């Protein structure tokens, strides 16, 4: 299961998340959390903490979910590239391994961590951080967010997922942090239940009611209307996909423009369902605009 993108999203969601998941990295004052492209070298640094205060260090963060013998060397390259761009600020590096087994323990850095607290590189094992958080703050929403990653048994996960999802929704979090937690949770849950549709996942979480349970469906059946006709079933599916897409987009990006909403409402069911899958990776309004440009509105058919 891919984890890097989701963890970078959580690191940038909230200063408290950054501090907890990195085992103590705290920035005083405002900062930005960005991905930076070094075009001359065709290199991308996915997690960079840029404090507004030039006296504070820039942090290059590498999330590592598999063993890579070159990871320490790549982090040093990242630190050098950032230092070259920001000569006025010190640069530090942090390796966030999901577990100790992913750490290649490259020397001289592996031996330096224990004896030199001023070492410019820090190393953190996420599984140990989460266990410490479980002991000190067992109701913290980050633990609920990581549930699909931490629980191996799918049936146990199926049982616990609705409660964890509700804990995230009700947690006293800034709205952006809550939105990112919900998005990461849904993304990981989709990865764990790849044999199920997004509609089935959302239904599991109580996020949407199956068509057969809606009041509209029951009223139509009571009136003996032919809801089973293919065109009626297809339109109902399209409307439900439209509703879910708009709701998730507003949660992820905020308000939509009238043009964006009209574009989405004009899409057929298949592109709408594709949009629901794609929007989990959106982080800015530009991502939505790029997707819409690649999926133009259908041309209206002239009346016969």
Tell me the β content: 5-15%
SSE arrangement, N to C:
HHEEEHEHEHHHHHHHHHHH
Helix content: 40-55%
Our count of helices gives 15
The CATH class of the largest domain: Alpha Beta
Average pLDDT confidence is: 82
What is the tally of beta strands? 5
Shape: globular
Strand order of the largest sheet: 1-2-3-4-5
According to CATH, the fold-level topology of the largest domain is Trna Endonuclease, Chain: A, domain 1
The largest sheet, given as strand count, sense and whether it forms a barrel, is: 5 strands, mixed
Which consecutive residue ranges, at least 5 long each, have pLDDT under 50? 209-232
Compute the number of structural domains: 3
Q: Quote the distance from N terminus to C terminus.
A: 51 Å
Question: Can you offer a commentary on this structure?
Answer:
By secondary structure, this protein is an alpha/beta fold. It folds into 3 domains: about 5-135, Trna Endonuclease, Chain: A, domain 1 (3-Layer(aba) Sandwich), CATH 3.40.1350; about 140-200, no CATH class; about 210-295, no CATH class. The chain is built from 15 helices and 5 strands. A 5-stranded mixed beta sheet has the order 1-2-3-4-5, sandwiched between helices. A hairpin with a 6-residue loop joins strand 2 (about 45-50) and strand 3 (about 60-65). Helix 1 packs antiparallel against helix 9, helix 8 packs antiparallel against helix 9 (about 175-190) and helix 12 (about 230-255) runs parallel beside helix 14 (about 270-280). The longest helix is centred in the C-terminal third of the chain and has 24 residues, at about 230-255. The chain is globular. It starts with a helix and ends in a 10-residue tail after the last helix. The model is unreliable at about 210-230 (pLDDT under 50).
